[in-house]
Every structure is written in structure tokens, then in C-alpha cells.
Amino acid sequence: MLDVIGGGASGMLTAATQLNDAISGGFSMNYEGVQALLTYTKNLQQAVARALASQATLSQTPQLGATPAANTFKPYLPTIATDSSQGLIPVLQKLAQQLEQSATNLQNSLNAYERADKGNRSSMVNVQNTLYV
Amino acid sequence: VKRFTALASTLAVLVTVAACSSGTQGFPTPTPGTTSSADGGDSTASSGTTTAGGKIASADQLANTQACDLLPASESSTVGLSASPSSHLAEGAKSGCQWDGDNFSVVVVIRTDVGLAGVLANGGTIVNTNVGSHQAKKLATGYSSGAGGTCLYAIGVTDSLRVDVTSTVVASGDACQESLAVAQLIEPKLP
Predict the structure, then answer these.
(1) Which of B79, B93, B117, B189 is the most exposed place for a label (fewest CB within 10 A)?
(2) In this structure, are residues A90 and A78 in contact, taking their beta carbons and an 8 Å threshold?
């Protein structure tokens, strides 16, 4: 199960990074489209936080029992969950950070559109990196 | 055109992978009859005591308490969490429970085979502290504030019994403040 979740999180991290790369390059999208993308990003943030909260408990020694096999596996499982390069928890944390960056940029782009362009009947929102990172 | 194509591909991957990642969580549990009473990790095990906000009399009662009973609806809402738990889970503990809110997700687990001495640092910093009248350990990794930040407060009950409170930040906030707030609500009920 962990490898499935880890693989999914890793793929989502790549996709979220690509979304931030696209935002850094800047693009135009209609208002409703940006709103939908922002809603989706915030929903994904909630889902990642829920997954992270439940998986974070794996960073402690699991209560597997006292059989010889359990005693063999116990010490390794927290390491798998917390490994700094390939562990599930660090990957989920990086994904959460990327999503927050996306959400902030999308919200700032919508705010800028509402301040400057909406009154001029401009139909497109310029989505761009407002964080300068 | 290339940029739109790249964006469309990115969104397609996000949606597809999110769909693939859903599923039933599981964790191996020992075969009945092969372990001692301190072993196991089955959240569906029979509950011994429902606290209903009251103090749990003994360590044995706590070991048979469902983690969801440690934070009733009247208390979870005061720390920004849902009134009812989002899920019962074990995740390698005797019993566990998760609450979600707009800003935090919080998991509380009861561990019956390890006490405070067994808290693993995993590269973070363990700080000895107290929550109410109980000894506790705070484990903050290098990343406890901001999106994805986590923080653990482990409350010791006996040498082989503790309650872990882990908070995760959704977008912004301090996970350690949330974990401490939840731990302070739970601690008065512990023996």
C-alpha cells in the first residue's frame, strides 16, 4: 500500500511542480477557469493534509506484535516513511508546499484581475507567479 | 500553444493520479492468539470504556478506549476541527482517530506497547515537556509551520502506554500550537 500511495504522491508532486512552472511562465485563462482551478487546488490541499496526518503516525514504531518477523520489520518501517529523499512523508510535505504556492498565485492573479481588468471588460485572467520564488 | 498544451497535460495528470491514489488503507495485524495483550493494531477491537468527557480511571481502561472517544464533538469544534471524526484508523497503534478542519488535520492514537522513551526523532528535535500533570515529549521536525507542516505531542501514561497527537497544516498555521491545544483537551481525561 505504501508504494502505491508513495508512487501516487510522487506523480502528483511532479504534476504540481509542472503547474507552478507554467504559472512562472505566465498564461491567460478565463475567470471561471481560474476559479475552478483554484477550487480544485484547495480541495487537493485538504486531501493531502488528511493523508499526511494519517501517514505521519507511521513515523513512529508500529504496533505489529512481538513475533520474530514483527520485531525484524518494526525498526525499518518508520525509516521508510520518513526517508528524506524517497520517504512518503517528505514527498507529501513537498506536494503540500507546491500546492500552497499554486493556490497563492492563482488567488493573487484573480485579485489582480478584479482590481484592474474586470471593469475594463477584459475576459482573460493573466495567471503568473506573484511570489517571486 | 505549447504552454497551454503543457498546462492541459499537467491538469490531466493531477486528476488521474488523484483518482488512482484513493483506496482503502490497511495495515498488517498479528494473527489472533500469537501475541500478548499489549500487541495488535486493530482499531475495531472491542472498546472497554467510553469516557464521555470524563476521566479514565486506569491504564487498562485507557488501553481499551477508542481514540475517537478522547475528543468529543463539544471539544473538537473549539480547536477548529470537525464535530465528528472523519475516520477511525489504527496506523500501527492500538486505536486511532482522525479529525479534519479547514486549517488542520489531527490524528490521535493510543499506543499500548511503548511509552515516552520510545518516541522516535526521525531527524527532528524531541523536547521534554509537560501537558497538564503528565510528562510529554514534543517532536517538531524542521517543518512544522506552513502547508504540510506536522508536529507531534506524545503524552506519557505508563512506561508502555502513551497517547500521540499529531497535527498537519492544510495551508497556513503552526502544527505545534494545534497539537498542544488538542493535547490539553485530552490530557485531563488520562489516568
Answers:
(1) B117
(2) no
Per the structure block, which three cell numbers stand in for B26?
490497511
The alpha carbon of B11 is separated from its chain's Cα centroid by a whole number of angstroms, namely 32
Cell 518508520 maps to which residue? A78
Joined together, the cell numbers standing for residue B169 give: 497544516
* Residues B139-173: tens digit of each pLDDT: 987 778 888 899 999 999 999 999 999 999 998 89
pTM recorded for the entire structure: 0.76
Look at residue B15 in the predicted model and tell me its pLDDT.
43
Query: What would the DSSP string read from start to end of B7-76?
Result: HHHHHHHHHHHHHHT--------PPTTSS-TT----TTSPP-B--TTSPP--HHHHHTB-GGGGS-HHHH
Q: Are the C-beta atoms of residues B174 and B68 closer than 8 Å to each other?
A: no
Which B-chain residues 145-174 have CB contacts (< 8 A) with chain A?
Answer: 146-150, 152, 164, 166-172
ipTM of this predicted complex? 0.77
Give the distance from residue B115's alpha carbon to the nearest chain A alpha carbon, in angstroms. Answer: 11
Which mean pLDDT values do the consecutive 10-residue runs of chain B (191 residues) have?
A: 49 44 38 34 41 77 92 92 80 87 93 92 90 94 83 95 94 93 96 95
Which residues 3-22 in chain A show a CB within 8 A of chain B? 4-5, 8-9, 11-12, 14-16, 18-19, 21-22
Q: Name chain A contacts of B146, Cβ cutoff 8 Å.
A: 97, 100
Burial of B124 (0-12, 13-18, 19+ CB in 10 A): buried
